[in-house]
Amino acid sequence: MTGKAFVAAEALPEDWRAGLFLGRIDLGEGPTPVLVSGGIAYDMTAVAATMSELVALKAFDPSAGKPLGDLETLGLSAAVDAPHRLLSPIDLQCVKAAGVTFAVSALERVIEERARGDASAAAEVRSRIETRIGGGIRTVKPGSPEAATLKATLIEEGMWSQYLEVAIGPDAEIFTKSPVLSTVGWGALIGVRSDSTWNNPEPEVVLLADSHGTAVGATLGNDVNLRDFEGRSALLLSKAKDNTASCAIGPFIRLFDASFSMDDVRTAKVDLRIEGEEGYVLNGTSTMSEISRDPEDLLAQAMSEHHYPDGYTLFLGTLFAPIQDRDEPGRGFTHKLGDVVTISTPKLGRLVNRVTTSKAAPAWTLGIAGLMRNLAGRGLLARA
């Protein structure tokens, strides 16, 4: 999987030659921001040394870049030792995520909490909770008077949860998914902790925003989740979410233009396919129209009173929560090593990664200091 060649016609939308895309590649010198227009990749380092600077300048004019050739002919690969590598499409942006933004995901978080991270206890808890609150949480608007009434009722019945607070309360759950520069891209290995026994992918649409919180485009992401860790305690969120190679983004950022808008994000249908080495196949769909909070509201809540001088990406959450038994009855789904995870939607393409452990995944070694040294050595930081 990690040695597979990148084929734009397979990984990008059918209309990719008509859209505008941002990405990062390494042709042997180091990370290079590129703009893809009309199917041609343009090296944009003459304008901006980093993707975050390119977005800040809104420098989306291909005539300002150096043409590298048709994206299909660059020979890109996700292999760490490939001469021409496709990287995650972001660099210095903060990686933020919104959680519990769909009713189903809210119910599953409550189930994890009540089952204390024990997959074998989840089925019984799921049946009991869905019977009590399933319908109400699916129809109520977060932060509304009806939501406050439902909250009061559930508190009286002893059914309230911190997850329901962020599902139907006024404030969304916004957390930091992973450090700057830690994300992996299309075709890379994606990791789960080696000591996790209950985990799953989270297929999501990811927005790219500038330092003012204005979205400039979108891509796909896998917000890998460890249900056993977070289920034991919400205070283990960072261990459940932030691990080596646990955050995949890509393949490219599709910029908003006449062919793609925020309304396309709002109506996107995100498909998930998991293929195990033993022949196991799981298919699922997350429909963005069922999200409880509008993407623009989530952007505003992520921005809040924070500071993101290099911009940020925002995972919008997922409707998908796999509960089908994979092996033992009653234990639901969990990953196995070698699973191939494909996340796709017509306007953004396909993000494909193979599962390994975070311990076995290639080490993340190029941090901010290393990137600055590389850019300085290439003479890209000398501009006034």
Q: What Rg, in angstroms, do the CA atoms define?
A: 21 Å
Question: In percent, how much strand structure appears in the residues?
Answer: 25-35%
Summed up, the helix count is: 11
CATH architecture of the largest domain: Alpha-Beta Complex
Instruction: Report how far the terminal alpha carbons are from each other.
Output: 42 Å
The major beta sheet can be summarized as: 11 strands, mixed
- Strands, count: 18
Give the overall pLDDT as a whole number. Answer: 90
CATH topology of the largest domain: Fumarylacetoacetate hydrolase, domain 2
Counting structural domains, the number is: 2
CATH superfamily of the largest domain: Fumarylacetoacetase-like, C-terminal domain
Structural class designation = alpha+beta
- General form: globular
The top level CATH class name of the largest domain: Alpha Beta
Helicity level: 25-40%
Please write the string of helix (H) and strand (E) elements: HEEEHEEEHHHHEEEEEEHHEHEEHEEEH
Low-confidence stretches: none
Structure characterization notes:
- The protein has 384 residues and is of the alpha+beta class.
- It folds into 2 domains: 8-99 and 172-377, Fumarylacetoacetase-like, C-terminal domain (Fumarylacetoacetate hydrolase, domain 2); 103-168, no CATH class.
- It has helices at residues 8-11, 51-57, 103-115, 119-139, 145-156, 162-168, 227-232, 237-241, 262-266, 295-303, 368-377; strands at residues 20-26, 31-37, 40-43, 66-70, 85-87, 94-99, 173-178, 189-192, 199-200, 203-209, 215-223, 225-226, 247-255, 269-275, 281-287, 312-315, 340-345, 349-357.
